[in-house]
Automatic annotation (TrEMBL):
<feature type="transmembrane region" description="Helical">
    <location>
        <begin position="246"/>
        <end position="265"/>
    </location>
</feature>
<keyword id="KW-0813">Transport</keyword>
<dbReference type="Pfam" id="PF00654">
    <property type="entry name" value="Voltage_CLC"/>
</dbReference>
<feature type="transmembrane region" description="Helical">
    <location>
        <begin position="212"/>
        <end position="234"/>
    </location>
</feature>
<keyword id="KW-0868">Chloride</keyword>
<feature type="transmembrane region" description="Helical">
    <location>
        <begin position="173"/>
        <end position="192"/>
    </location>
</feature>
<keyword id="KW-0812">Transmembrane</keyword>
<dbReference type="InterPro" id="IPR001807">
    <property type="entry name" value="ClC"/>
</dbReference>
<dbReference type="InterPro" id="IPR014743">
    <property type="entry name" value="Cl-channel_core"/>
</dbReference>
<dbReference type="GO" id="GO:0034707">
    <property type="term" value="C:chloride channel complex"/>
</dbReference>
<feature type="transmembrane region" description="Helical">
    <location>
        <begin position="277"/>
        <end position="300"/>
    </location>
</feature>
<feature type="transmembrane region" description="Helical">
    <location>
        <begin position="65"/>
        <end position="89"/>
    </location>
</feature>
<keyword id="KW-0406">Ion transport</keyword>
<feature type="transmembrane region" description="Helical">
    <location>
        <begin position="101"/>
        <end position="120"/>
    </location>
</feature>
<keyword id="KW-0869">Chloride channel</keyword>
<feature type="transmembrane region" description="Helical">
    <location>
        <begin position="307"/>
        <end position="326"/>
    </location>
</feature>
<feature type="transmembrane region" description="Helical">
    <location>
        <begin position="140"/>
        <end position="161"/>
    </location>
</feature>
Amino acid sequence: EVMESLALHGARIRPRVAAIKVLASSLTIGTGGSAGREGPIVQVGSALGSTLGQLLHFSVERIRILVACGAAAGISATFNAPIAGAIFALEVILGKFTVSYFGAVVISSVAASVVGRAYLSDRPAFTVPAYSFQIKELPLYVLLGVVSAIVAVLFIRSLYFMEEKFDEWRLNAGLKAGLGMLLTLAVALLLPGREVLGPGLEFIGEAIAEDLNLSLGLLSLLLVTKMLATAFTLGSGNSGGVFAPGLFMGAIVGGMVGSVAHSIWPDVAVNPGAYAIVGMAAVFSGAARAPITAVLIVFEMSNDYKLILPLMLATVLSTLLAESMFPESIYTLKLKLK
């Protein structure tokens, strides 16, 4: 919706969007919907920026800057990632890097991070063990990039396939949303821990832990059910983001590749959890076509520089392969269909 307003409506977002998104997203995520909180927060921040620009009778160009500032602030405060927040606004929301935008976006992102750290926490989003990286692991990370691209494309297709199916049903929007939540719950019941409900950030912490002790079968089931649950939740019209589900699925994909590699080459793939961290960035980047944002946000969330090389390799490879298989990103496909 934010990208639609920038492309089609002169960056003008109705003021009531902020209030509606807060309420709708609280209901979706609070009742266990498989969605992230970052999407609604980006929309709320962008709506506030657009509203301020309209009240002050700014030009369209200046309103665009305020919309980007609001988006950057949302990501920065949500994930305690000010650099990634700024780059997300430039790379995904605006789609271009210019000096005139950069300064304002960075200031907004830093300010949001300061406020978030003051009221929430100054710690990284995840506690990451001290993983090491060996050059001989690079082929495995190339494989992870390929698998991540396939999963990212499946994620995009499943989400919009389900959205099209729900659009075909002549039902009240509220009934569709309720039906989507019921289907999400039905999928969650397939798992004893109901891990697919909500954003799933707690499970990500388990997946990247040093002692990843989840079986390959359980990881496969988690991947399929999370993809279905997210498609049911968001495809039915409920409010939420795709950022957290993308990270969740990426952690699973990385955990699967790392576990298999560790069982075959234990001296090479020493830490399966390291692959889960890289997988988070690779799957999200393949879906969003935002490699810089993906690398930076996982780096800031984990606060670990040692994996930056495999992060960059797998993420860029996933982005390129996903784009060759499916040209539109999870953010631009809906805009193109309109």
